[in-house]
Amino acid sequence: MTSYIKGTFGIWILLTGLCAGLPGNAVANSDAVRFSENVNLSLRRTADMLLRANGDSVSQIPPVQQVDANTFSVAMSRMFDYDKLPETLQQSFDAYHIDRPYTVTVRDCKTGQIKLGYQFLDLKQPGGVSCGGRTREEGCYTLQIRFDPAAPKTQTAGNSWLLISVAGSLAALGFIAWNRSRHKNRPEKESQQTPGFRLTFGKSWLDTGNQTLFNGENTHSLTFREAKLLALFARNINQVLERDAILKSVWEDEGVTVGRSVDVFVSRLRKMLAADPQVKITAIHGVGYKMEVHS
Is residue 240 within 8 Å of 225, Cβ to Cβ? Predict the structure, then answer.
């Protein structure tokens, strides 16, 4: 009996190793290809609209270049109307359902020197994108877009039916125990630091990559969930966020969520932001929360 259990469990482990990676990788690769295609089409649409705004409907648009997984560029043979770029580009991204944060740079084709640029967050600022309305030199320019790295998707038990059918009920129980242990032991705060954006609100700002809140003379090191929740509020200033939407955005990769989690984490953020009189997280009874920022 003991040898049977060991043998069955060994078969389950072997099948897990062979099968678990393939579907997950296939999905990830499919998402990456789809994202690249949508960005390609978005940039070509943007280039076409900018050329047409300059009265050019005949010049050929060169192929979009993908520098890496998150960086794309397209060459523009002549200077375009920079003032029309932010709105035109965002409309193109909206048309192809691209909602990842991004940074835009306009570079000299020959030297690669940055001439102009902005972050997507500048679109929501009162002053808008900087350097608008200024005279610019004619020449060849490269429009480059760099996206925030996509958050990795949590592997789930999507293949458990295959393992159960082959390894039997013992293998299924082992898989469930392993899956629960994986979620239980996963650290809340990601140890690897990644490049991030600076989200400014009131007299405070959040370094999303290093999960650090700077509040006056105070510096707070946030957990992964705290930083994710604060970033969500900072990107939706003075907007009511429903509780279910918050749970989906911040805790959706946990599989099982508890509504009380939102209240606990909001309470933590309130304490950290107490030193900033311009920022307040308000509870909207029966709905959710809203970050209010006053000048």
Answer: no
Query: What's the pLDDT score for residue 188?
Result: 41
Instruction: Specify the 3-state DSSP secondary structure of 15.
Output: helix
Report the distance separating Cα 79 and Cα 219, nearest Å: 43
Structure token pair of residue 177 = 């125990």
- The span from the CA of 277 to the CA of 173, in Å, is 52
**In what helix (H) or strand (E) does residue 71 lie, and over which residues does it extend?**
strand 71-76
Kindly report whether the global pTM for this prediction surpasses the value 0.85: no
The alpha helices in the chain, defined as continuous H runs, are 2-19, 21-53, 85-95, 160-185, 224-234, 243-251, 260-272
Q: For tokens 């039916």, name the residue.
A: 161
> Angle at the Cα of 88 (from 83 to 90), degrees rounded to 5?
115
Closest by alpha carbon to 168, among 7, 3, 19, 1? Answer: 7
Six token digits for residue 129:
């994108």
CB 295 within 8 A of CB 278: yes
| Other beta carbons within 10 Å of 249 | 15
Nearest to 233 by CA among 213, 254, 258, 255: 213
Q: Per the structure block, which two tokens stand in for 154? A: 């949590």
Segments in the chain below pLDDT 50? 2-9, 11-22, 157, 161, 183-194
* Cα–Cα distances in angstroms (integers) from residue 13 to residues 2, 24, 178, in the given order: 16, 17, 11
For residue 238, the SS3 value is coil
